[in-house]
Predict the 3D structure of the following.
Amino acid sequence: MNAIQTIVSGLLAGAVYVLVAMGFTLVFGVMRIVNFAHGELVMLGMYGALVLWTQWGVDPLLSLPLVALAVGAVGALMYRLAIRPILAAPHFNQMVMTFGLLILFQSLILLAFGGDLRTVNVSYADLTIIPWGIVISIPQLIAGIIAASVSAATYIFLERSTAGSAIRACAQDQMGYALVGGSIERVRLGTFALSAALAGAAGAVITPFSVISPFVGIDITIKAFLIVLVGGLGRVEGTLLAGVIFGMAESVLNRLLPSGFATGVLYCAVIAVVIARPRGMFRGSVG
Amino acid sequence: MSPSRWLGLGAAFALLFAAPYLPFRTNYGIGLLVLAIMYGYMNLCWNIAGGKAGIFSLAHGAFWAIGAYTSTLAYQKLGLTPWLGMFLGALVAALTAAILSLAFRARVRGIYFAMISLALVFALQGLVASSPWMGGATGLFIPLKQDLANFSFVDKWPYATVITAMFAALVLFLIAIKEGRLNDAWLAIREDENAAEALGIPTFRYRVIAMAMSAGLIALAGTFYAQYVLFISPPTVLGLEVMIGMLLGTMIGEIGTIIGPILGAVFFVAITELIQAAIPPSSSAGAAGGLIVYSAVLIVVIMGAPHGIAGLVRARMAKVRNQNRETTVSAKPFDVGRLAEALKMQHVTDFGAEILRVEGVCVNYGGVAALSNVSLRIPRGKIVAIIGPNGAGKSTLFNVLSGFVAPHSGEVHYSGKSIKGIPTYQLCRDGLVRTFQHVRLFSGSTVTENLRVGARARSKDIGRTVDDISHALGLQNRSQHLASQLTISEQKRLELGRALATKPEVICLDEIMAGLDHDEVVELSGLIRAVNATGVTVVLIEHVLKAVVNLADLVLVLDKGVTIAYGTPEQVMSEKIVVDSYLGQRASRGMSGLVGGGS
């Protein structure tokens, strides 16, 4: 029973990871930018949900669309003011810029809310269901389901809609997309906003069972990195699979080892995977 | 460096050494000095990998922490004095860096490497925090006492002297290697990895050296820090702040230079102090305010001065200098005499013997046959041209010859040995060199530096070879210009010169005539003949048919990956199939004239 329990909670966590990592990989795919501030957008989502909860008692799950929209707007602004000017700069400059944004977001929230740990105490926080003896926390179950649905919707959007195919086209060949008359600029802006909105949604959805602090972002960014690396940068399908695998591996390791040790082992394993398959686990080896 | 510069450097070091003993010293001042010098030292270490070799490592904060932890644990568990423990730490850090560098073998580069190096930091963080014998999440304390033998002092001034000595040693070391083999190899790798490999540089090895060396050096500073603050813990030494500090410091100064990272460290400490003086850091609002200023400075610098402050000043100075300088320094004519001087080969006598043999080579790209069953024998001392329409497989054949592409079947023999499994850099060191269709110079380096990279492959007297080649190619008055400042035809000359500087026995030139006007083609043809006259075997890919006919001893015609004809220009041109498939029907009438013009 323990094994199934571990797999189920891993799956639920994995669904949220996928949501975060998907936005991350989209931005990389279209702009070749590694956004170190991506986790900060998740953090903003958490604070957005927190404010709506404490001020007006809006449940984080209900405020999710609004939070996603607001963080999406922050993302659009961030793109216009900070990312667009350095699109042509060397990778190193881009990396340092997003590092700078990471610190900026962190410190702005620190200034506004202080450094204390916060929680949102929803009435259903401690509820569980126990089908066939497997204990599942209700908020985590809801988070997993919502995250999976939003990820699926995004995936369908990318595959089926015109805007989605524009994003995929840009990720493959920007020049080609411009040649057939597309506006790269609009696609970039849209991608960044979408990526931020997904991060915001992830933030809202995990608020009921997470500790909220200005410093949670970097850890989230790292996990998104690792998932995206394992899945192959800029590859949405790979990210989906890798997110779920990562969530499950983490859950299993956390059960077997002390938590810090589990993290260490997991990250080292990811490094080994990347060295062995640098273009992602699910792509053929590099030619 | 000029004597006046050495004098200035000596004075600066003397001042740094003397500062903690000056009458108006304060403990606060010495503290700032120690921090600034330590950050300067660390920035310089990171800069070896990040700036010189172009490796985006985010793990150097962790290598620094490995130094701190290793020496502290060795002292507490084994009683090893930190004076020795610091070298043990350097060893552990260098080994860790070398293992991480295995990623280069898997062709992990750029941002990918940045990310896995960051993963290493977080892995270590987790492992240390959950290992009680390493102090766990609370960290390790080092007792405060006066104990010279164990690197422990009550006053701050001895620390200042130690870190200044480390710093001075590092700066002198970096100056010493500035024009050496290591530095040249790193610059070449940073600018263009493939070109570096083709010029005889084992890029993997030099990347590992850059990582291991910078990790080991920075670990020494880690031990220093542990002994200085007497407390280490996962958040204080394994946090991202250390790494961010190094990135920002280097960024604010200027990446890749010696002075930039040092200036950046001074700037960094100054900003931090100003912020702390303005806003008390005790409150979270105070800390946040400081961080906001900090990130704002960073963002402004990246947008306004992408090459840092030192870079900005340098660009200004260069602009003024260029205005004063004669703006149209044109390249000189070729000097064939100097060429013979540079390339002369005493040991080679077997002219006419087979030097390159291609045997039934097939290359497929995803089901498309780029080369099918191509065979070719090239005698030493000849000029061989490979012609054919676009997509004929010419460049693929070159890639096979130079070891960039391994054939799916068939073999290439060079000097009687199969080149299978021999890395590209080794082929270059064995005397087989190539140029690239699109010029691939080290554009951020000077003409001399470009030539020097080539000369290091095989030449005994590197300075001499560089001088000979730059005269031979008429680039002597451009020697201090950056490759990116040259005209297109000069860039082509430099690319050729860089390959010639390797003193090759066989040189493969990929469409070297493309884009040149008639006079330039004639001039270059003369040069290639001169190269050939020294005994160098020349293999050319060309579209300029006339040049090939006049130049080549042997011509290979490829079409769709298949050999159509191979022989002397006269033989080849008389084959009907060549005329039909490559030259087209109409060309056949003018052919006799063309061939007749050959030598």
Notes: Residues 243-325 of chain B form one domain.
